[in-house]
Specification:
This protein has about 230 residues and is mainly α. It is about 80% helix and about 5% strand.
Length: about 230
Amino acid sequence: MKAKKLWAPAVSQRLLAYEGFREQIMSAQIRPGQFVSQRELSERLGLPLGAVREMIPRLEAARLIVTVPKRGLQVASVDLKLVRNAFQVRIMIECEAVRHFTRTAADQELDVLEDAHRDILRRAEAAHDREALDADARAVDWGMHDRMVDAMGNEILSEIYRVNSLHVRLIRIDADRVVRLRVLPAMQEHLVIIAALKKRDEAATVAAMTAHIESSKQRVLEAMLLA
């Protein structure tokens, strides 16, 4: 019983540290290629140094960080290989996810998704409050992808997808200078997917998802050339 009491808090803090690191990536508080010490991470996350140390092997296994002797921890850098690999994984998982979603999504959920995307488009065309728009657009964008993958009910695939999403989000953070060029086409491409979903056209949803992911990759590559 005593061992159980000692183990449970350690597991909880390690998970909190990992989730905190994910949030740092998603909110652009941690940048690609950045060096960060264990102590700095501990301060950023508001957790004990021990929890950060226990989290590091998981981040290394996911290739989110690399330990560099005498320099500390380096966040994964963005390069062409990472872009190719990350988007290839997206296509493999998300095409299967959208195929399943075509068969199982409720009509009401699809209506809600469509309304959310059209609202983002209206705001993007009005060009007001760009920072809030980008944050909301990211939530709508990734929310749809996350929902479709999780709807498969496969925890292994969801975990692989979540880790890969962190790599993709690192890439997208580097492309912040093209917010408007990213938001409008992404929402429009999503609406094509949603239209195919509402028709229950499996072949069309897979084709639309593939085209969307390939277009997203191309936008990232173009943004990298502008850097």
